[in-house]
Amino acid sequence: MPLIAGYHRPTDLTEALDLLSTPGRIALAGGTVINADREPSDLEVVDLQSLNLDDITVENGVAQVGAMVRLDNLAHTFSGDLIGEASQRELPSTLRTLATVGGTVGAAMRDSLLLTAMLASACNVHYADGESAPLTSAIPSANRLITRVDFVAHGEWSIHSTARTPKDTPIVAAVGRRIGDRLHLAISGVADTPVFLSDTTDLTSLEPRGDFRGSAEYRLDVAQTLVRRIEKELA
Amino acid sequence: MIPIRFTLNGKPLSTSCLAHDSLRTILRREGMFSVHFGSHSGETGAGAILLDGKLVSSDVVLAAQADGHDIVTVESLNTSPELHPIQAAFTAVGAFQSGYSAGAMILGTLSLLKRNPDPTESEIRDMLSGILDRETAYVKPVEAVMRAAALMRGDVAEPFAPAILPPLTQHGNAARYDENDAPPVVSAAVPRLIPSRDVPDMAVVGKPEIKVDAVRLAKGNPAFTDDIDLRNMLYARVLRSPHAHARIVEIDDSEARSFPGVHAVLHYWNTARVKYASGGQSWPNPHPHDQVSFDNKVRHVGDRVAVVAAETPEIAEAACRLIKVTYEVLPAVLDERETMLEGAPVIHDEADTTEIHDRDRNIVHHIAAKRGDPDAAVANADANGHKVFTQTFRVHQVQQCPIEPHISIAWLDEDERLVIRTATQVPFHARRMVAPLLDRDIKDIRVVKPRIGGGFGAKQEMLIEDIVGHLAQVTRRPVRLELDRSEEFIGSRTRHPQTLTFTSVVDGDGKLVSQDLYIIGNTGPYGTHGYTVQTVAGLRGLTQYNAPNKRFRCDVVYTNIPVPGAYRGYGAPQAEFALEAHMEDIARSLGEDVIEFKRRNWLRLGDELNIAPHLGERAASDEELDEYPKVLSTGLEECVAQALREIGWHRRNDPAWKAPADRPNIRRGLGFAYCMHGTAIPFLDMGGCSIKLNDDGSFNMLVGATDLGTGADTVLGQIAAEVLGVPLEDIKVYSSDTDMTPFDTGAYASSTTYISGTAAMRAAEAARARIKERAAMLLGIEQPCSIELRDRRAYAPDGRSVSMEEIALDSLHMQEQEQIMGTASYVSPECPPPFAAQVVEVEVDIDTGQVTVVKMAMAVDCGVAINPVTASGQVEGGMLQALGYAHCEEYAFDSDGRMVNDSFGPYHIYRADEVPETVVYLVQTMEDSGPFGAKAVAEIPKDGVAPAMRNAILDAVGVAMNEIPFTPERVWSAMRAAGTA
Ligand SMILES: Cc1cc2nc3c(=O)[nH]c(=O)nc-3n(C[C@H](O)[C@H](O)[C@H](O)COP(=O)(O)OP(=O)(O)OC[C@H]3O[C@@H](n4cnc5c(N)ncnc54)[C@H](O)[C@@H]3O)c2cc1C
Ligand code: FES
């Protein structure tokens, strides 16, 4: 645990925003990132659990998901769909029950499969001030309180990934979803956060950070292979 | 303080916490000792509990977050002496080894079955995915959940027992492979047992008895080192080096000392400089003695600099940050091949470390042993029409990863003696080794080993006992030190990396003429187990095939990596990877069938172990001996036959299987490795046991042996029960406490069943002799030896009998009173090898290099498995650790020698939802030198997976990988280099 100096549990959004307006305070969702951090800090946390941000609705194939919805709930609700599969694979059983949608966007991990899947699902992020932005431009969502996200929860999809073992965090993962007649593609492991591949993105122009799991050269090569596989599968 | 209220196990609880307190901390404070520490970031699952009915890691939940919620721990099920059906199911199938994560598994099952009374295997595996288990390969836990589901649905469960199979071989000859003969269809968790006609049927030995500690583990009772509450306890935290190699120029601890709540700060200025070697080995500990408690030089990132004892862990950590250390940073070297080169930094330049072989070149030891003349064999090869094969292999650094990290608690007792309660595999060695560092007599130290949450060699070390000892002496208060996960990686022990070069000469008939092995063994900054591990690597690399000429040479070298030490297998996994890869490649280049080639050369019954006596624990020698130990039992051919049938070996020749038409990027392959291990160190490993009879005819058995979760207590109990003619439940086993239990060298070298087991057998025999005499007295019989003990009674030849209880009451209270007691110890002149056949099936993605292991099977000849369930559990868990070694585990460093993946996840150990199908066969043989025919089983499963996987990749895609682990990029690069990708 970091040396968290203070704990707050607001009961409405106004109170939450008020609390968060003081520097040195951050939103606490599932806590799998914040509470696992061992670096000393004098953070105060603002726990979002009592803000009623845990609703899920689906209308016309578009899902509205509260920021505090846990990944196990997503996996269950969207079982059989890309989002369900990505939520299931994101974390093991004992952490999936804690981690949230809002935290996943907030943490913006380079290897997040769920975030990659959301990018491929035309995801929008909604903030407490009433504004919203497409996820493609919302990462990283510096210090803005997320209340919910929406995304397309239907259409053919596919995940292709490469990892050391079957359930290890992918070194590179490519995700595709067909929305209407367009194929939406996103990919993790080739930049500091997952990237959406627009029609104009040139994969080979990306400059991944290599590490012991995969060099930059390897990541780019695999990315191209995986994207090709998705394009073929969802052609 | 923040006031919090939640429901704990059905009862409302009001308490308070600090903002940073984790839920785990508060639950343990409330006495919920089943909630264990594995890491701060929650990925081990050892601290998982139910929060509003869902399984969550309590490490990453703030106690304050739990306010208003419903919390359940496994203690909620402990409402009566009986086990809850879920607990009963886990114990029935032997699903717990150390049981450190028992609470989490049981709660996960409870929650899963509530949602879904009839879960599929994949749902069960998903539930277990967040609970890392380093011991069982999840095989028996999965079976346990299925059984629990059946019990909860009201089904009747059959007793869990091995599947008895007929042999495929006769008289030790090779079997003919029949591709139409399918393997038996049995649940993976069930051990397949092929009995030997030489082994008689017994009452307790050979039976799948439930472990003697099952209840305490299933209930999560306070059994582990940390599970005690001591008044006024202080918490220690070690300040560790950020540099791989540096001199400490100055330490300013003034701020740390004056920080409120700090009671002591120790470092090299205020701690005596007493040299020692930390490897938990017999007296006298091998030289060089190159360590001190706190040094003025650091030699790896994570090395000890100072330690603080304070009122809370947080204060200790904060105080560590206040210690100002001025370093003179020195160049560092990590690679064993570079450290011997000119210009490399000298790692031990201090004058008071002696007996370093070549200090300036960082060579700690040079080891050499020889039979015949391997140089001549190479020189004359051409002339003789022989072929020479030379290959170099590189094996990397990995960690034992016990889910319970190192933990020790020390205090001064009422007699001012120092008590150290510690998670150790070697309590007696630890007591002897720590004494001089603390300036105490051995008699004034008591080391208590409670249950251990896994060790695998990491705890075969006197690692932190000196630190808590120093602090308890200085502060006169109890002091606790628990390593966190990062420290467990960088500040405990690891497997030795090595570079191995094999040179073999093969004659025109495909027989080995000579085998030569040169190893550069990387012992990191300290010698510890460096000498012995490399010796065992030589022994294992050069024993299992016959060749008249053999040589082992080794340079054991210092580097600046985190310290290698003992790790299950102890040098064998390294050597066997190289050997079985090398032999595979020789066979291929000769155009031979790999198994036929190996078979022609492998050891058979009666063959000599011709290099073994030259590679002793303490010295190597070239001198010819009059006599060499021989193989006196082997079930190898049966192992090979069962393993090949299980994996469907003929598919190697089926192109349609190897390149499936519907998955164009996939290639399949099968690989084989032959394994041989040792059983204990002859003339060195010693175990003691004492047994006494109680009023009710039960027995207390005290053993020095340390059960790490391996089931040793159970196996030793079974051996005694068999001798004494009582059920296992009548033997109360206690291990180990240096004040009370007899000496034992400790849990290592696959010695416990064989050595301590023989001690247990002999102690029981001594007690039995007295029992028979007393029974003869009561029955009025002249010849005690005609009495037979069985079913808790002593029977005369005419059928009359007295009960064990009557004998006990008579001997303790009635006439010629005496305490019936047997004591014995054992050291073996032999080291009978267990044998095994390992097979692995893989799929390789030819575009990305990703390898998926589909199946692993091992058939082991371990003599008589005293308990087939615990024995098969050992093999399952060992194979999965070995798979991690081969496939995904590795230490990754930055350019400054800092480990960049010192947590689970980046350092990946296999999860329940991704393990390949894992199957175990136990091939019985009768080893006359072992107790009831037993040999060892604990380490051999570590030996074969890496080479079998490597050979399977070779079979699939034609690339020979001479370096582990087989991560995607390595395989991809190898395929590219070979032009196959
Ligand atoms: C052992 C372990 C393994 C992990 N493995 C992976 C992995 O494989 N892949 C992966 O991608 N991640 C992984 N993670 C990271 C993490 O679990 C996920 O990113 C998770 O989804 C974060 O969710 P949370 O609710 O727990 O976040 P928190 O820890 O509560 O918060 C994370 C960040 O998001 C911010 N935040 C949270 N909610 C909001 C909100 N509503 N509005 C604005 N900001 C918000 C927080 O302030 C914080 O900065 C792992 C974590 C651990 C401990
Ligand atoms: S009692 Fe003496 S030999 Fe039987």
Describe this structure as you would to a colleague.
The complex is a heterodimer of chains A (235) and B (981). Chain A has 235 residues and is of the alpha+beta class. Chain A folds into three domains: 6-47; 56-152, 2-Layer Sandwich (Uridine Diphospho-n-acetylenolpyruvylglucosamine Reductase, domain 3); 157-233, CO dehydrogenase flavoprotein, C-terminal domain (Enolase-like, domain 1), CATH 3.30.390. Chain A contains eight helices and twelve strands. In chain A, strand 6 (124-127) and strand 7 (132-134) form a beta hairpin. With 981 residues, chain B is an alpha+beta fold. Among the domains of chain B are: 2-77, Beta-grasp domain (Ubiquitin-like (UB roll)), CATH 3.10.20; 686-827, Aldehyde oxidase/xanthine dehydrogenase, molybdopterin binding domain (Aldehyde Oxidoreductase, domain 4), CATH 3.30.365.10. Chain B is 27% helix and 21% strand. Chain B contains 24 helices and 33 strands. Chain B is globular and about 80 Å long. At the A-B interface, strand 3, helix 4 and helix 8 of A face strand 4, helix 4, helix 8 and helix 24 of B.
Q: What's the total count of β strands of chain A?
A: 12
User: Based on the structure given, which CATH architecture of one domain in chain B is correct?
Assistant: 2-Layer Sandwich
Beta-strand portion of chain B reads 15-25%
Number of helices of chain B: 24
Helix content of chain B: 25-40%
Please report the number of helical segments of chain A.
Answer: 8
Name of the CATH first level of one domain in chain B:
Alpha Beta
